[in-house]
Amino acid sequence: MFTEEIKQQLKEVLSAMQNHVKIRFFTDNKCPSCADAEEFIETMSSLSDHLSFEKVETEELVPAYELTSEKYPDASIRFNGIPGGHEINSFLQAIVELSGLAGELPEELIERISKIDKDVDIKVFVTLGCPHCPGAVAKANRLAMENPHIKAQMIEAQTFYELSEKYNVSSVPKIVINESFEFVGNQPIEKFIEGLEQ
User: Fold this and answer.
1) Which of 6, 44, 46, 194 has the maximal Cβ count within 10 Å?
2) Would you give the DSSP letter of residue 85?
3) pLDDT in tens for each of the 198 residues of the chain?
4) Cα separation of 143 and 132, whole Å?
5) Whether 13 contacts 96, CB under 8 Å
């Protein structure tokens, strides 16, 4: 799945990790892309001592990866589908940030995010060829790190075609917040927060 050159590049990115990140890999024995998804996470976790994964058999959306860390134990970050193509960038960013290297957000935004006191689900529909999608996924993930009420999930639109149809995904990234607030494009983080506050 990865050439030796790409493995070396990934290893360099992951070498910045500060704390351990654990990935729960969700799979079942009927899913056509789960073997590739398992190979993906096996290879990825072999590239850093700070990274490990646990395989979980489930009938939920598969393949999927759920990320947790010692530094952000309450963060809810999930990737539904193999984060290949451009999406490898948001996956790597989530791992490195969860390990303790998340950049500071402006105080005003942190204050707004901390006031969210109800459960919020952010779905970010992507395609692997979309260059603008990783930015939107990264913003959703960052919000989930700041507040345990916020759940962020990337959904690969082609793998989960039925969900894409349900949410009328015609262009990506498409962001759906709590089933009611939605927008398209890699918008500023303030746009995401506006949806959380609805």
Assistant:
1) 44
2) G
3) 789 999 999 999 999 999 999 999 999 988 999 999 999 999 999 999 999 999 999 988 999 999 999 899 999 999 999 999 999 999 999 999 999 999 899 999 999 999 999 999 999 999 999 999 999 999 999 999 999 999 999 999 999 999 999 999 999 999 999 998 999 999 999 999 999 998
4) 18
5) yes
